[in-house]
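dumping this here before i forget
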Amino acid sequence: MIIREEPQHFIMIAQHDHGQLSGEIATSINPSYFIDEKLRDTVIKAIYEHDRGWIKLDETPIWHDAASRPFTFEDYPLAPKLQFYGLGIDEIEEKNLYGGLLCSMHFSTFELLRQSDQEDCVAFCAREDDRQKRLREQLGSWNEEALMAHFKILQLCDDLSLYVCLNHAGAAKEEEHPWFRDGFKHADYFTGRTDGVLMASWLSCEEVRVTPEVFATKCQAKLLYKRVAKEEIKRFGIHEAYLQSPLLEQVVAFS
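structure:
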């Protein structure tokens, strides 16, 4: 779950809905970045589905007593999170070997997992390394340059979606989530420079400008979310308050 706090409410965004926004963004990325046009649809499907492992977890949000808010994707208990990461990649792999490879690469490169010496993290990374080796063997010949390009596209679309999820619409640069104030981490492929910076900024409450330009056409996308009242959480508990809150839609354009 992605959480953004307001004075009287929590904005709660299911990870799979964030993934759906990532996929919509991917559909408008300039096709030239995909290198191998035959794989474009396969890659976009994987981007839509990359966070499907969260579907069951997000059906029942849980309360973080120490932080006085719901658990987020960042601090959700590690053991179930890693288990469902793996299950989500399993489901993607069943439908799409290449997509399974991309999503395994995505999750297993999370710095907090790679740098951790916790047993669960070490075991997860080892399993995904084995998965990637197996999938590369099953796929046979492939274009390594295209694979790395598709990996970068997944990371960028994930980041652009998180930019929308973690910032209130129309946020000034100094108000943005600290992850994005200085640009995006995975931008070298799109800027053409290892020290190049890709920036996003809100032009209005409904439009985000991305520089340098990565879209073939203006991207019109939507994000589903819930606005859960803190008073309702006190009365009913987080799970019931979340269930009773209506599903809302935010429309955003990328240019």
